[in-house]
Amino acid sequence: MPSDPDLDLRGRLIRGLGSLRDMLPGSFVERKRACGRPNCHCADGKQLHTQYQISVLVEGQPKAFNVPAKLVEQVRKQVEMRGRFDAAAATICGINLKRLLKQKEDQ
Ligand SMILES: [Zn+2]
After folding, report:
1. CB half-sphere exposure, 13, CA atoms < 13 A
2. If you measure from the C-alpha of residue 107 to the centroid of ligand 1, how many angstroms do you get, rounded to a whole number?
3. Is the predicted pLDDT of residue 1 greater than 70, yes or no?
4. Cα Rg for the chain, rounded, in angstroms?
5. Given a cut of 90, is residue 29 above it in pLDDT?
6. How far is the CA of 64 from the centre of ligand 1 (A)?
7. Distances in Å between the alpha carbon of 6 and those of 37, 41, 91, 100?
8. What is the 47 CA–ligand 1 centroid distance (Å)?
9. Which of 47, 84, 50 is nearest to 67 (CA)?
10. What is the pLDDT of residue 105?
């Protein structure tokens, strides 16, 4: 039986989802801020601190969670995983819809 390129793609995407198991929701945000200490270098309003956050909807409400510097690269990657997961899901759904429409035609 000749292989169906759509099914090959679907299989590859499904098998790839396991590598996205650590995905995180929301978006990764980089903010500049002053800490408020009068003697800090940020007090001039120019050399601000960089603060990293993930911005997430929790029960419909936007929430921001601080990300410690040592976790920034990890969290950034985990948030990107969600995008890849969504893209894979959209492609898989597209393939399945196409197959459904084909199935209907064949009946
Ligand atoms: Zn400061």
Report:
1. 19
2. 69
3. no
4. 22
5. yes
6. 20
7. 59, 57, 10, 13
8. 8
9. 50
10. 87
The number of distinct structural domains making up the chain is 1
Q: What pTM value is reported for the model? A: 0.81
How is residue 37 written in tokens? 């200490």
CA of 43 to the centre of ligand 1 (A): 6
Distance of CA 103 from the midpoint of ligand 1 (Å): 63
C-alpha of residue 52 to centroid of ligand 1, in Å: 15
As a whole number, mean pLDDT of residues 40-67 equals 94
**For residue 39, how far is its CA from the centre of ligand 1 (angstroms)?**
8
- Residues 62 and 27: beta-carbon distance below 8 Å: no
Q: Which residue range is the domain that position 50 belongs to?
A: 5-105
